[in-house]
Amino acid sequence: MNPMLSLSYEQVPAIVENSSDAPPYQAIAVRNEAVAVQSHSASQGGDHLPGAENPLRRILQPYGWQLHSPARTKRKLLQSASSVPYSPMNVAYNGKTCILFRAKKLAIRYKNHTFVDLTEKAFGPNAPVDTKGSVCSKDKATLSLRFGDVEDLRGLTIRLQMSNTFYESAGQNWFTLDSVHIHYNWTHEATFNATDVYAPATYSYHCQHVSSLQKYDTLLVPSSHSDSSANWHITFTDFQIQAFNVQSNKFASASDCATFFTPAILMGLITSLILLLVLAYALHMVVHLKHIDRYEEHKTTVYFPRSPEPECTDKNSL
């Protein structure tokens, strides 16, 4: 019997008899045909028939019974494995891991050209990126991503300059991403300042978008309009990096770039302000109505002088 089948021929009669989906006369017919197929396949080597050509599959298919093979499960596992994100880039210097870096997407664009996606080249399982130019020290670190020739760009390299500085006011060291450099065509360079990307040195830094585009808050600012940096756009999506105090080749707790004034919080503040204005106006109207009532109360107590006619009548009587 074929071990690839999950249902044996001997189990078919019992399953057919216990099934409530098929009428009794159909169950008997299916059982008889299944037994006939069993004997016929045994005589002609039916154990080796593929699942798609097996007559038993044709018999059981109208009643919702399927013969499953492990190939279908294998395909599902491959599909689920493809959705797993790339593992972090581990950069070592002098035999010790000093930089951890990952991004869900890395894309660059020159002027109005289409974006060049470098994600697969940087984080893929067979990524050709070269990180040998990376350097680490106690106070400085440089992550060098050398991609080589990419489309029309020659010798493309992206460098991230980082520093570790002690601040007396905070009483601890802080990690800062100082600048991002794009080297291309061997002699050209575009530089972006990134001083707003920082975190405590014992933490990693995470941000949903680290980009030179305005719609992503422009954390990467062109250093000068005299060079070609103003013509470049670079975007890291789901960006996370740690350049100092890397322990056990794992990211430390992340310091996120999300600010207090997120769109949801701003909408809540605006709504609260509108409600306060409505409440203030309502209180003003209530106070004004009370003032009118008091004014009407005073207005009703009006003094009317007595008529002089009765006095004249009394004088004439005398």
Secondary-structure blueprint of this entry?
Elements: H1 11-18, H2 24-43, H3 55-60, H4 70-82, E1 89-93, E2 96-102, E3 105-110, E4 116-117, H5 119-123, E5 135-136, E6 140-150, E7 153-167, E8 172-184, E9 188-193, E10 198-200, E11 204-211, E12 221-222, E13 232-242, E14 254-256, H6 263-300, H7 309-317
Parallel strand pairs: 11-14
Antiparallel strand pairs: 1-2, 2-13, 3-4, 3-13, 5-6, 6-7, 7-8, 8-9, 8-10, 9-12, 11-13
Helix pairs in contact: 1-2
Spell out the key features of this protein.
alpha+beta, disordered N terminus, seven-stranded mixed β-sheet, elongated, seven-stranded antiparallel β-sheet, 31% helix
Please report the distance between the alpha carbons of the first and last residues: 148 Å
Task: Please provide the ordered H/E string of secondary-structure elements.
Answer: HHHHEEEEHEEEEEEEEEEHH
Instruction: Please compute the radius of gyration using only Cα atoms.
Output: 41 Å
**SS-based class:** alpha+beta
Number of strand elements: 14
Shape: elongated
**Count of runs of 4 or more consecutive helical residues:** 7
Helical proportion? 25-40%
β-strand percent reads: 25-35%
Low-confidence sequence ranges: 1-6, 46-52, 66-84
Q: What would the average pLDDT be, to the nearest integer?
A: 74
